Amino acid sequence: MRRIKTTCLLWCLSLAAATAKEVPQIGNVLARETVSLNGAWNYIIDVQEEGYYDYRMNPTNSGFFRNAKPQRPEDLIEYDFDKAPTMQVPGDWNTQDDRLFFYEGTVWLKRSFDYHQQAGRHTLLYFGAVNYDAHVYVNGKKAGHHVGGFTPFNYDVTEMLRDGENTVIVKVDNKRKAEAIPTQIFDWWNYGGITRDVLVVKVPETYIENYKLELQKADVNAKQREITMTAHLNKPEAGQTLTLTIPELKVKQQCVTDAEGNASLTLRIPSKRLSLWSPDNPKRYSVTLASDHDVVADSIGFRTIETRGKQLLLNGKPIFLRGISIHEEKPFGGGRANCTADAHTLLSWAKELGCNFVRLAHYPHNEHAVREAERMGILVWSEIPCYWTISWTNPDTYKNAERQLTDMIRRDQNRANVIIWSIANETPHSAERDLFLSRLSKHARSLDSSRLISMAMEVTSASNYKNRLQDNMNEYVDVISFNQYIGWYRDVNDAPKMEWEIPYDKPVIISEFGGGAKAGLHGPKNQRWTEEFQENLYRENIGMIDKIDGLAGTTPWILKDFRSPRRVLDGIQDYYNRKGLFSDNGEKKKAFYVLQEWYEKKK
Ligand code: GCU
């Protein structure tokens, strides 16, 4: 008994000694000094969480996170990561192991790596995303716990690492929960796993945690433009000099941090020297921000986005958003997309359609995709998964949603192509919902007043061909966006007769419309699932939508057929939502050309 007490005491002491702490998301991680932990990770499928709870369902301190090995012949250790199969990280488990195709539960993933800590430097362990609930351990000790499947998080693990071999173990659980974000039901595949990059990030003890550059709005004929820069150190250190350099703009300017470690400056640039970012001119400038001990390089474009009545103005000029909705799924055969190549293929398909805009639905997509869109001149709508009926009155649910919103904005705040933050999709009207979402809208504005706020609303009433949109959230958004499925879920072939009443002096985006078709299935245009039915639906919807007063853009549902557990029609859906303009094998459907033709006219 005394020996057990001593062991526990020693263990707690070592725990106390080598603690990690979750630190705010480091900005622009891709430009930092990093070691990638992407690659093969061993995994153990743990349906009953044997590796986390004892048989009384109390968390055990001899769980799988200890990566224990028998020391003596009689020792009983009933798991061994090094004998376990491997899967690729980043990646979902559903498409890498047939046993896990439908699996929702816990899987443990382990990766060992050699590491030599440099004196005076700190080490962060960064995850691009883990779906959904992640307990992270380093060398058998808890680094932290994170919920939310689509945003980055990182821990300062400096004190947990040892010189030589180190081990990271992550307990990942993607079970759906009512109080979660997203909630229990959603029309996409619940891909589980470490779905984005894992990086070991080497930083100075005091580093530039994050920064934001923003072109201030001005009259289109202004002779001079102002760019503001705000930056934040990871520590409240005053007196550090920050130097911002933009060689192409002949900029080299300094500012000094205050007691909170914040610093800011304003650049004044002759307008004729500044090339503004736009889809036709996706100009980005090489920017370097240096502090006394740290330096970060980035490629940043400058543009303004605003509304004036029902007009949407990019760089002060009206723009029509020729968009398409996209899920974060690999171009071919399903699975989470997670790299530039995946994004480039999907975005090239959108470009072929004639798009200058994409709605990344219904959750923040990976950073590679957003940056690739910026390079390709494609504007972005980015969204958090407050999808359908969320637990509006649960304070933890609100905190989770707000955290995801914060992390989405903090990651992409310097991306010129990101113009809209969306806080929700198809949420039922109630006072609780309005309170929840209005708080999110205010929060987003407090973090970033340079972009527009929106959400995908729903048509409120429709009778006698009169469609009306009435939503209390109209005052908390800059753009009125809504989904409508005339021709599919209702009023087949009635689109030409429809009238719209949208009583708000704001730009309108149709954030979803469309219908399903099985690629290669042909027949009369009133035959469901044929390409002709979808083609006709698009033709009729476009005719209707084009007449809507204040229409500033649209993002039809959807670029490509995507996996969904809600789509069970054998021989047609086979667990795919078939509303894509491309099939899951990249084949174009007839409706593709209808939209392409319209967008050509909208240029
Ligand atoms: C909804 C929802 C999408 C869904 C689509 C559909 O509007 O926002 O996530 O996939 O409709 O029914 O296909």
Task: Briefly say what this structure is.
The protein is built from seven helices and 34 strands.
Word description of this protein:
With 603 residues, this protein is α/β, with parallel strands linked by helices. 17% of the residues lie in helices and 31% in strands. The chain has seven helices and 34 strands. Strands 22-23-24-25-26-29-31-32 form an eight-stranded parallel beta barrel, surrounded by four helices. The protein has a six-stranded antiparallel sheet with strand order 4-3-5-10-7-8, with no helix packed on it. The model has no long low-confidence stretch (mean pLDDT 96). The structure holds alpha-D-glucopyranuronic acid.
Q: Which secondary structure elements does this structure contain, and how are they paired or packed?
A:
Blueprint (H helix, E strand, L loop, with lengths): L1 H16 L3 E3 L9 E4 L2 E7 L40 E4 L16 E10 L5 E7 L5 E6 L2 E7 L5 E4 L7 E10 L24 E7 L3 E8 L8 E10 L7 E6 L4 E6 L5 E9 L14 E6 L4 E6 L4 E4 L2 E4 L2 E2 L2 E6 L13 H14 L3 E4 L6 H10 L2 E5 L11 H18 L5 E8 L5 H17 L4 E7 L2 E3 L2 E3 L11 E4 L15 E3 L6 E5 L18 H15 L5 E4 L7 E2 L12 E2 L12 H13 L1
The structure holds alpha-D-glucopyranuronic acid.
The site of alpha-D-glucopyranuronic acid (GCU) has 9 residues, from loops.
What integer value in Å does the Rg equal?
25 Å
Number of strands: 34
Shape: globular
Low-confidence stretches: none
The chain-level mean pLDDT equals 96
Helical fraction: 10-25%
Class by SSE composition: alpha/beta
Distance between the termini: 79 Å
For the largest beta-sheet, the strand count, sense and barrel status come to: 8 strands, parallel, barrel
Strand content: 25-35%
Number of helices: 7
Q: Which sequence of strands runs across the widest sheet?
A: 22-23-24-25-26-29-31-32
Bound molecules: alpha-D-glucopyranuronic acid
